[in-house]
Amino acid sequence: MRVAIVADVYPPLRSSGAVQLRDLSREFMRQGHETTMLVATPELDVPYRIDDLDGVTVARLKSPKTKDVNYVRRMAGEFLMPFAMMRNLRRSPLAHRQYDAVIWYSPTIFLGPIVRWLKRRSNMPSYLIIRDIFPQWAADMGLISRGPVFQLLDQVANYQYRSADVIGVQTPGNLAFFDGFRAKHPDRRIEVLQNWLADAPDSGASIDVAASKLAGRRIFVYAGNMGVAQQMDKLVDLAVALRGRDDIGFLFVGRGSEAQRLRTLAAERCPDNTLFADEIHPDEIPGLYHQCHVGMISLDSRHQTHNIPGKFLTYMQAGLPVLASINSGNDLQAMVEARGVGRISVQPDGLDLPDLAASMIEREIADETIGAKCRSLSDELFSARAAVEQIVAAMQA
């Protein structure tokens, strides 16, 4: 098949979405499909740039800036992004390239116009990979009210859903969200498409825990975005509660809107058992996790939708059990508990996290089989190979 994948993230960006799309595009190529990435790229000073990365044609298309800007500018940039991508794709050598399928990745919710344009040109099916349900989760958390702005964003999201022939959600719990949509659009197919992660070798890391103040401790690590949706004060509170234990340390690696505030808070309340580091290259993650013992996850307790964060996949692949503070009923809870790969807190304030962490030191970390359990779960459910095979089957059907 000739496949077009449309997104607003791709390496050299270091987000989990960028890494997932890199792994997906590489796997499409490995399975013999001619693959083109169409990527919104605000940093360009020209209309487009065409690269060949590992056999994947990557068309970077200049678009408005949508990250690290205020909400008004972000909203305007998001709306304009797909139209800027279309305009600059028309200027490129790929303007008339035809495809057999178009796939796109959400977030963002604003790519519907370029997807529909591509579909009309090539008369092909489309597959939407949806990793979080926006704007619903933002309203659940009180980040936006359910007023005019929410209604506008909800219409954009529904336009995106109507642009897809198949929608792949990341957990079974998210299927129910689309019950009303399926009733109105019975020709659309909704299925579970598990997250995925390609094999990653341990090539070392720039962070050396053994040379830090956490040397010799059991390390609880958090690597990823530190934003409002993560409600990470619970993890700092955990470090505060266990600051009297010199056998446990907490390592936080990443960036985000809350990163500096959390760094300052930890320096004031628990300076001896916490270490903060800036975001590292995704290729360094296996080397980082090789030095750690437990992976931490934190989601805002007000979430009503289901979410399996990308960092969970990286923890499982590295053989790290997880300590997770998540919303009650999240599908992640059943998965972790059924497979015996960590401990889950669903208390909104996370007050049970210190006891769970202490229990993990005594049980999970002492269990010599825990790493194998984690890696087995990763291999079984979260492979790029399985994701590509499922998407291709859906498009051919």
Structure description:
The chain is α/β, with parallel strands linked by helices and 397 residues long. The protein has two domains: 210 residues, Rossmann fold (3-Layer(aba) Sandwich); 172 residues, Rossmann fold. The protein has 14 helices and 14 strands. It has an eight-stranded mixed sheet with strand order 3-4-2-1-5-6-7-8, sandwiched between helices. It has a six-stranded parallel sheet with strand order 11-10-9-12-13-14, sandwiched between helices. The longest helix is centred in the N-terminal third of the chain and has 20 residues. The radius of gyration is 21 Å and the shape is globular. The two termini are 13 Å apart.
- Backbone structural class: alpha/beta
Q: Percent of residues in helical segments?
A: 25-40%
Report the sheet with the most strands, covering strand number, pairing sense and barrel closure. Answer: 8 strands, mixed
Structural domain tally: 2
Compact description:
The protein is of the alpha/beta class and 397 residues long.
Please render the helix and strand layout as text.
Elements: E1 2-7, H1 16-30, E2 34-41, E3 48-53, E4 56-62, H2 71-90, E5 101-106, H3 112-122, E6 126-130, H4 136-140, H5 148-162, E7 166-169, H6 179-184, E8 189-192, E9 218-223, H7 233-241, E10 248-253, H8 259-269, E11 274-277, H9 285-289, E12 294-298, H10 310-318, E13 322-325, H11 331-339, E14 342-345, H12 353-362, H13 370-381, H14 384-396
Parallel strand pairs: 1-2, 1-5, 2-4, 5-6, 6-7, 7-8, 9-10, 9-12, 10-11, 12-13, 13-14
Antiparallel strand pairs: 3-4
